[in-house]
Amino acid sequence: MAQNQSSLRSISDLRNSQPRFCGLESGHRACQGCGEALAARLVMESAGPDVMVANATGCLEVFTTAWPQSSWQVPWIHSLFENAPAIASGMEAAMKAKGKNTKVLAFGGDGSTYDIGFQALSGMLERHHNILYICYDNEAYMNTGVQRSSSTPHAASTTTSPSGKERMGKRHLKKDMLSIIAAHHIPYAASASVAYPADLQRKVRYAMGIEGPTFLVVHSPCPLGWRHESSKTIEVGRRAVECGLFPLVELERGSVANVMPIRNRRPVTDYLEMQGRFGHLFKADDPRAVEERDHLQALADYNVATYGLDGAVADPMDTKGAAKVRRGGGEL
Amino acid sequence: MTQLTRGAFALPGTSLDFKTGNWRSGEVPSHIHAKAPCHNACPAGEDQQAWLAHMQQGHAEAAWRELVSANPLPAITGRVCPHPCETACNRATTDGALAIHNIERWLGDEAIKHGWKYPVATPEADAPSVAIIGAGPAGLSAAWHCLRHELRPVIFEALPQAGGLLRSAIPATRLPRDVLNAELGRLLALEGITLNLSTRLGRDVTVDELRREHAAVILSPGCQAAWEWEVGGAVPSDLHEGLQLLKEFMDHGAFPEAKQVVVHGGGNTAIDICRLLKRAGAEKVTLVTASALPGPGVDPSDLINVVPRELDEALEEGIEIIEHATINRLIMRGSKATGVEIASLKKLKGTDGRRHRVTFEGTERVINVDMVVPCIGERVDPEGLETLLHGKAYFKPDSDSGKLGKANIYALGDARGDRGTVAAAIGDGRAAVASIVANLAGKGEPPADSRPVLPAELLNTAYFDTSQRTQAPKLPVSERGFDTEIEGDIGRAAAMAEAARCMSCGDCLACDNCWTMCPDSAVLKIQELAMDGSHYVFDLDYCKGCGICAAECPSGFIQMTAEA
């Protein structure tokens, strides 16, 4: 275990002197290469330390709080699958009553956000609570064994939308959550991806500065449920953005305020072929596979046209520019 | 110890007690400082990646100091080297290899302009001395590395000026004489180097004398004797061998008159002669070479061994090149050649597994000429070296360091017969002195660098913006003469921008990707350097071995390796 260790300081000293706020500690039980664990850590870094969290049921809740331990370094509450926004609303009201400025965050997966806790979320937004809601979108109920949610993309195979003779994976479309959120006319709603950490953290910091309800959906690849190698979490997320299937956009008061342009667009197959959940789309001699691949390409093209994602020229905020590195740092 | 709490409650951050490192199955991330391919390909032993890293931090002088730790003559090699570093560059697989030679040249010129001090101390007066025969690139490099290792180099040069082949065989259009004189002058002015000019081996000194007086003897005499050339017994009376012709031209500034010339050979001397003859007024200059011109699918071992841009410039200037051909026969009128019969030829593997030159019957054709110039190489002038050459044309040392047998005698550079570039000669100087130092300390030969080379597949190019390779300014064909340099300077801004294109193969960029993207916070950042030279440490107590850090490392510095 002594590999690479600094001779000057012990490893626990090092851990305690990292130049970033660690709101979500190591020792959590997320799978190898978990996109959601990474997303939550990145969010806590930019949001903390003066925050408290209401967490819906889901992977994040389970893997960070195996009793009697917790990975959280901030006040954190879990109640039910469907009521994180309601709990957060109460926490925010309590802080207000006590005259404190502590920001309340509400966390949920796509299951609790798109499906089970949806009406509580809508109420929270409508009541205009000062809360940042973050949805970690891994596109299925991963905690309970990969059941389809309304966020599962079209044609993805899950245990409850299996591919086979009858169907090519999920029959329905991924719910356009951001448009529904935008219809609440809230100050700020945005999508982000773990593949673009600097962009994700900028959006968190921006939302933290807003008084009122804000919403962020973070694309968080799941190696287990999407069936890709654990080392490819970032690559898969990057390709989702680069092909146009997961557009990174920012909405203010319901209007598109900013998008991440795609400089060199990839075909959707570059994204799909990395994942077992889309494996049936690459079966030879199945005309349905071709049709569904074309369908997904058409959906990506639709996103690109709707949000104007085609970036013809080099732009520091585009898919390449936003994640460029140079010696001694990542940000521009 | 795990503290049990009341139900539905836990103390903050207590999951740190749970060491997820035992989830790893097989592979663990490791920092591996693999060799950058440029470094691996450099005959002089430069680590281009290392000095480009200094450039990326805006430290040109530090870059130059790193560069000269291997090669003391960057202003020269930046101009004359065929830069195998650029051929090997991993960026060639995406948007074009780095223009390393242009940056090297700029650094060399800056050092001359600003008088940057060579990073070396004067050796003690009683330090061991090393005798060096010949003040060409190999000898000068050996002298420099002697200084770096606190030895006193004593150089013996037969000619009245130092520089060897740099002065006698490289035209001023490639290597202006003021640059050559400035860089050699700076090097030779270093305290501790003794230079004896006009001192000929065999006449003024002998190897035996030198062995008695010095701790080691380095032989870098170059190749001063021409091979005799004939084709089927015919030798034109006015035959001009290539290197000799070039030397005469450098001394007198004129060629024998000829309208149609065929040059036979496949090296830089052949190309230089073609271009100079053309500029001197020859109507038609044809190069006949047994090698291949660059193109898709060409076997690198079959490729013509010249500086690539020199070849492009030659074609631009109207030199005709016939590849895969040889001279079969000279057509003589009396004792003068009036034509050459050429035939197609290829170097093919025979049944014995070795390459042979196979001439193809039925491909013979005739070119009319006034002059034919063979550039078929030279051999070591045996004067004073008879006992060491054993009648052979070149030295064949037993080890890479150039050591001949057990004695402290080393043979370097062109005199070894298989070198052929200034960079290789400079590398020989470095290796020989490293061996001398190890031997003087009572150790064996210094160990070779066994690190692996970083393949392009291990880079993550998603993190590098596409950018165009810098194009150096060039003199238009109509303005090319005999004195003005053809390739120009790229300047500070372009040199810095070009250096920024380096993808840092195998070396940590300190970009923070691993630290930012670890889902388990198992990468820790430190301000001081870790033992492996990076700013990051893996906390294997928590690393689950997912491999994200390795996949997202832009420079391939993190690799997944089998767990110990």
> Tell me about the biggest sheet of chain B?
5 strands, parallel
Which residues of chain B sit in consecutive blocks of at least 5 with pLDDT less than 50?
none
Shape of chain A: globular
Gyration radius of chain A, in Å: 20 Å
What do the pLDDT scores of chain B average to?
Answer: 92
Helix content of chain A: 25-40%
* Sheet with the most strands: spatial strand order of chain B: 4-3-2-5-16
Rg of chain B, Å, rounded: 28 Å
> How much helix, percentage-wise, in residues of chain B?
25-40%
Distance separating the two termini of chain B = 28 Å
* Biggest pleated-sheet summary of chain A: 8 strands, mixed
Mean pLDDT of chain A: 93
Distance between the termini of chain A: 35 Å
Describe the structure.
The complex is a heterodimer of chains A (332) and B (564). With 332 residues, chain A is α/β, with parallel strands linked by helices. Helix content of chain A is 35%, strand content 13%. Chain A has helices at 11-16, 35-47, 59-64, 84-98, 110-116, 118-126, 177-182, 197-208, 223-226, 233-243, 268-272, 287-307; strands at residues 51-55, 76-78, 103-109, 131-137, 188-193, 214-219, 249-252, 255-259. In chain A, β7 (249-252) and β8 form a beta hairpin. In chain A, α2 packs across α8 (197-208) and α4 packs parallel to α6. The longest helix of chain A is centred in the C-terminal third of the chain and has 21 residues, at 287-307. The radius of gyration of chain A is 20 Å and the shape is globular. Chain B is of the alpha/beta class and 564 residues long. Helix content of chain B is 28%, strand content 16%. Chain B is built from 18 helices and 19 strands. Chain B has helices at residues 37-41, 48-56, 60-68, 74-80, 84-88, 100-114, 137-148, 165-168, 177-188, 207-213, 242-252, 268-279, 308-316, 386-389, 422-440, 491-499, 513-517, 548-552, and strands at 27-31, 129-133, 152-156, 194-196, 216-219, 225-226, 260-264, 284-288, 320-322, 325-333, 336-349, 355-359, 365-368, 371-374, 378-379, 409-411, 523-525, 536-538, 558-562. Chain B has a five-stranded parallel β-sheet, sandwiched between helices. In chain B, strands 9-8-7-14 form a four-stranded parallel β-sheet, covered by helices on one side. In chain B, α3 (60-68) crosses α6 (100-114), α7 runs parallel beside α15 (422-440) and α11 crosses α12 (268-279). The longest helix of chain B has 19 residues, at 422-440. Chain B is globular. The mean pLDDT of chain B is 92. At the A-B interface, α1, α2 and α10 of A face β1, α17, β18 and α18 of B.
